[in-house]
Amino acid sequence: GCLFAPNKAHKQRLPFTYRSALFQRGYTEVDTLIFFGKRIVCKGFDDFTNAVKILLIDDALVARLKKIVLLGPKSDFMEECNSFFDSLKGRVEVVEQSLSRADALALIAQNARNALCVMPYTNDNHPYSVLEAIDTGCQILAARAGGIPELLPEGFHDGVLCEPTGEGIAEGIRRALSLSGQKRRELVSGLLDAVSREQELINSQNRDSLKRLEEFLPVKPHKPRLGRAVFIAAVSVESLGFIKDLVYALNQQTAR
Fold it and tell me: 67 - beta bridge partners?
């Protein structure tokens, strides 16, 4: 490892630009759940599935929930979860869509008035999906895991975070279902205002850091080089789906 003096190293959040102005959209009570993400374990799809199972035990909640939207690529390795949602289609409207990122965010924005966007990611370090979902104006519920808590002002943690378990997600959804339309609007607009102000400070710090770096290391023209590389990973998971995810991610990174 490397040793740095405390005054020579600091954590720096990544830049992001919020495009939404504070809105006057009318909100109603939640009657739609949107799971936003690839339907795999590390995105918490199994925990979300268990949360829905817990919620559906309560007939009063069943009457409140009109629609569940599964917004992300379907994985054949989540057969039990997929079968469960197939079995629900007679009780609740279940919509399954795999869209481009822009179209997915547009769909979330269109449903923001009465929807809760659930992102129970368990291992993400800096998930832009959480920031992008906030920017749509939709109320969010995210896992208290990985780097997600660091992305959100602490004063909003109790309102928008849940434990990364089926029971924790179910409790977070119950909490959202209990809010009136006015309370939801206050939560959503307050969070967007807070993260926008915080993110602008982060963006300014990034611009300053980049400027100092360019002064120290003048930018040279970049000539992309193409070639082949061998990547060896120790794998201890049983599902080949995770291997496919890794290969996809590596190809996306090395294509840039």
Answer: 32, 93
Reported as a single tens digit per residue, the pLDDT across 2-15 is 666 767 666 677 88
Q: What are phi and psi of 68, to 5 degrees?
A: -125, 125
What three-state secondary structure class fits 219?
Answer: coil
Which tens digits make up the pLDDT trace of 184-212? Answer: 999 999 999 999 999 998 888 878 777 77
Neighbours of 146 (CB within 10 A): 18
Token digits for 249?
A: 């991610």
What lies within 8 Å, CB to CB, of 58 at 6+ separation is none
Question: What is the number of H-type helices and E-type strands within the chain?
Answer: 10, 6
Cβ 169 vs Cβ 47: under 8 Å: yes
CA angle 111, 132, 109 (to 5 degrees): 15
Which residue from 51, 103, 93 is spatially nearest to 68, judged by alpha carbons? 93
**Cα separation of 65 and 96, whole Å?**
16
Report helix angle 128-135 to 101-110, nearest 10: 40
How much is the pTM? 0.82
Distance of CA 112 to the CA centre of its chain: 15
> Do 115 and 140 meet the contact criterion of CB atoms below 8 Å apart?
no
Torsion of CA 102, 104, 109, 112, to 10 degrees: -160
